[in-house]
Amino acid sequence: MTLRSKRFRQYTTSCRLYQDNLTKRGASDIANFNLDIFSVQTGGEEKIKLFEPISQYVIESTKKPLFCRAIINKLVEFNFAEVFEQKYDFFAQIFEYLINDYNKDSGKYAEYYTPHTIAAIIARIMVQGKVSNVTVYDLAAGSGTLVLALAHQIGEKNCTIYTQDISAKSNEFLRLNLILNNLVHSLGNVVHDDTLIAPQHLNAQKNALAKFNYIVSNPPFNMDFSDNRETLAGENHKERFFAGVPNIPQKKKSSMDIYLMFLQHIIYSMDDNAKAAIVVPTGFLTAGSGIQKKVREHLVSHRMLRGVVSMPSNVFANTGTNVSVLFLDKENKDGKVVLMDASKLGTKERVDGKNQKTVLSEDDMALIVDTFNAGKTVDDFCVAVSYEDIEQKKLSFSAGQYFEVKIEYVELTPEEFADKIGGFASRLEKLFEEGHRLEAGIKEQLERVRYE
Q1: Is the Cβ–Cβ distance between 195 and 166 less than 8 Å?
Q2: 290 vs 100, 117, 305, CA distance in Å?
Q3: Which of 105, 260, 369, 424 qualifies as a cystine partner to 124, CB 3.0-4.6 A?
Q4: How far is CA 51 from CA 155, 202, 282, 452, in A?
């Protein structure tokens, strides 16, 4: 029996035993019994149980254990072959399902599930070689796909995870994933609170925000945070939000670019040798003014940009926004910056018969990771440039603007050249003759026009 098969049998057995316990004792009893072990704290340090009511629609107390049982049934009956291949995210499909049908936060936190392929690509690019005793941070962690993928790449025993997220539901799945991924030692670092207004992870002296070795994030892109806009723009946050805070639109408040706030928070939270990766809308790469350009200017002037990978459209099934992954590295002071356009990779698939998403194969992922890490130049796909090159291109991070324009040519003998020129001249003469004929016809028609 293989190790993976053994783990699978152990896990399904645990699920069935856990299912029986839920039925006999109820989820709330189990959560209360394990409060000190598996709880997570809010910004106000109040402990949240492992199992709070998962859905606002399941109100009757007698039905709550049945709902939990139904969720466990999905896990028991699910084919875990692919999940154990990836290892780190056991609740992907259930989380996507609950986003749509059991969203206790009513969708106001703009939750988007990060595909495993994106998480794996980020982890493989960020971690090369042996890494130990490092901190991993996600300031908008969701169910933990990105931090779990990174922890798996580093080694669960070699890192400590720190997260914060405003969504209670997402934190529930994150805690379960930490337990199932041998990351129980990081449970105490899971915080339920607003990262922008009340970041909770502080340094040892607790007089400043903590700095981290690795940071990953797929933050919400657009959201109305007008209620907190003036607070975030105040003097207490000037250093953290160095490039500014988006203004409140007169008509459409939901279009406020909140991802720029998370991006600035990430830059502020990086330690001296830190690496980071953040999913951003592709429009960020070329915006000609505003906060976007100020942030890009900061990354170039401080020599902390490792590269960018522009992903295919619809790589996120539930949003049509084109996305790119921005890689930062404070140690890349004099190195090349790798810019990649992977938008043509992947295959299109239908989701639920209506939405379309782009799926990257293992070969696609390997091509992206191997080419990026090697810093190879591949025509119309990848280019390695200097910081000076980027400054000359007005701080554009778009790979396409650096691709070499090639003009194909064919060597000709003098006789072949003369023959081609003769052919061109002959066709041109015929076109001229046709033009004269049309001119004469137009004049003839004009002469027939009479005023009556």
Answers
A1: yes
A2: 34, 32, 19
A3: 369
A4: 28, 27, 38, 91
Strands (E), 124-269: 134-138, 159-165, 190-192, 212-217
What the block records as the tokens of 263 is 């991006």
Establish how many alpha carbons lie within 13 A of residue 424's alpha carbon, considering only the half-sphere containing its beta carbon: 6
pLDDT digits (tens, 9 = 90+) for 106-151: 344 444 567 888 999 999 999 988 999 999 999 999 888 899 999 9
Q: What is the DSSP string of 99-164?
A: HHH--TTTTTT---PPPHHHHHHHHHHH--S---SEEEEETT-TTSHHHHHHHHHH-GGGEEEEEE
Q: Left if phi > 0, otherwise alpha if psi is -120 to 50, otherwise beta: which for 276?
A: beta
Strand partners for 214:
136, 275
Two tokens, residue 447 = 């002469």
3-state helix vs strand vs coil in the chain, percent to 5: 45, 15, 40
pLDDT at 262: 97
Tally of CA atoms within 13 A in the half-sphere of 126 that contains its CB: 33
Mean pLDDT of 289-314: 95
Task: Report the relative pairing of strands 337-341 and 382-385 from DSSP bridges.
Answer: antiparallel
SS3 439: helix
List of long-range contacts for 236-242, beta carbons under 8 Å, 24+ apart: 239/268, 240/209, 240/264, 240/265, 240/268, 241/265, 242/267, 242/268, 242/294, 242/298
